[in-house]
Amino acid sequence: MPSYDLVGKSNIRYDAIPKSDGSVPYGEDHLPDGALHCGVLFTPVPYGRLKSIDTAAAERIPGVAAVLTAKDIPGKNFRFGSNTATHEGQPVLVEDMIEFTGDALAVVGAETRDALEAGIAAIKLEIEAREGVWTTRHGDKSAEERRVCDFEVTRGDPKGAFAEADVIIERTYETQLAEHAFLEPASGTSWIEEDGVLTIRVGTQLIEYYRAMAMMLAVPQSRVRHLGTYVGGGFGAKGMLTVEPYLALLTHLTRRPAHMAMGREEGFRSTSKKHPFVMRYRTAASKEGKILAVEADVIGDAGAYPYKSNLFLLGGMCIATGPYEVPNAEVRCHGYLTNNPITNAMRGVGSNQLCFAYENQMNLVAEALGMDPFELRRRNFLQKGGQLVTGQKIEYGPGLEECLDGAIKALGEPAKPAPGKRIGQGFAANITGYGRPMDSAEAAVHMEPDGSAVVRVSAPDIGAGQGATLQTLAAESLGLRLDQVSTRLSDSASSPLSGITAGSRQTLMAGNALKLAAEEIRKSLVKGAATLLEASENDIRLGGGEAWVSSAPDRRVPMGQAAGEAKKMGESLHCTHGYNMPGHEYENPERYMGGLGGWADYTFGVHASEVEVDIDTGEVNLLKHVAAHEVGIALNPTSVEGQFEGGAVMGIGYALHEEMTMTEGDCRSQSFHEYLIPTSSDVGDFKNVVLEGGEGAGPYGARGVGEPPCNNAPAAVALAINDAIGAIIYELPITPERVFRTIREKKNGGGGH
Q1: What is the DSSP string of 269-280?
Q2: Which of 331, 295, 314 is nearest to 162 (CA)?
Q3: Final residue in a domain of this structure, among 526, 552, 580
Q4: 3 state DSSP class of 410
């Protein structure tokens, strides 16, 4: 691997100390003077028709400045990205049909919090409640009119392969509705600038929503500015609109500043969730341990509105056979509307649900063949140049064997069980995409005459260090010290647009765009330095804020002088550069949303878990967890390990207890008392195995690592529990009740739950 000045080093992130001492401003901080308190009236029923809404009493309450309903929206009453060609999208404020418990009916602005609450309570509603649709399963013929997507792909001859198989395993797996559980509530502020531009300052994963606000307000897009802040957790939910439309509407119509922070209960009921999947898998293998064929039929609950369920189920179809070379496959992924909460992006976007299913299948195949499960995986792992079910080739080495070896070694021998306890170990391999085909991003770099530089990118920093990564890439390319580079993120008025911070895409997209921009300026710096040092441009080296002659290192100048000389020579010290990801070429592109199927590239890994199970109570205690991934190159090893740990812990919670419990569309989980997320005491001994093969689609060969660690963890924990109790649990989360019931069924002669 090449050696770099800054890339590959655990540089301290510039936001580390401000975050530690609490000085970093988030969405609701820095409130404008005289700001109205903004709040929303959500529907009291999950499904029905809004017959009338009377705001007169609310408007008479002292301190209430405005009560707004759908009739007050000047432009388009819909949320960006929520509609498809066949199904209506989610309105900002309901005019007619209420589709789920998170639909908003009115916005209230008030001088005080008490007046706000009184105003919301005084709004009178007439609603015709109706019976909704709460489940969707295989064989539900009534669901066809609610279908939002249906993707199908066939590779090879699955029927013939199943006819020749020595072992066939068929099982159905289910995963739950899960909450993103970000700690910072959705919040923000809004105001009118002196030039009349409406400005929204919100913690978001996508500042390009200013365009949607302009459409809602019927104003030019240039008259709305979106400022992003640091984000205290998003995981996909803040990639959708949260408080933005309410703030924008209130400020636009009252011409007054406003602020809003959703309460935890409001956030639970209105923000998006992780798709519940029902996955029917059928796997065929030969007695030699080769996977001959896979049939997978996956149903996703899209919730009340389509949003991007089509994109995520299409992506799921592309990786449904896992990190294995499967010559014959038939995969179908389809999504249906219900009246449950909206489901959309959540860390993993379908990969963790599918991994739970296909890794259980691998263990069951190994058991039926009497083969070591490690050996079965090794015989079928994808290799460089291998193909997914869609025919997409794997361009870079997956490193799966090395990940498996590292995970086995790091986990070690199982502990000895205490009386009444059983110990189990589980290993799960995974494929996770990062970046999307046909994606694009822009980034700008500006060099100052004193040798410092400014980076401008719209990418919001959601806690993973996106800003620090971009700072490192610019400093490395320009030959500067980190303290000579400043980043300016997430301002739609001044930042080139780089899209959403999600899908592990920003390092790939914004990072590559930034590197291209910086390399153009580097050429100017080299020319300036070559002139000052009277040397050939090929002999000039940059680093540490200086330029020097490689054959005579003592001959050097500060970068500021090189920049000044370049400027005199007419060389540009500013560059905005774009980076475009091509679409994939498919035999039938219409099946893949015109080339959008799959991801730009893939990250692979293996996780290992060791659990202790109390056979009398079903309680599970995670003793050890190992995350091993091939990352191409770790741009900042400490940040990479942080992603490994954070993602895996999120996956562990998803495996063991996280679930949004619903009763006919009504959210029963309303706080972190009912919705349990992991704490440090739930994780046990954690180890990272970071493998760097130097290959990846990102800058310097980096791969996306934000989501992959979340995706193996649920399967690894589940397989460890199965190992401990000697039975299979086919449904997440694996609560003590489910473990206890499965143990009891096994004792009574039944199979797994």
Answers
A1: HHS-EEPPEEEE
A2: 295
A3: 580
A4: helix
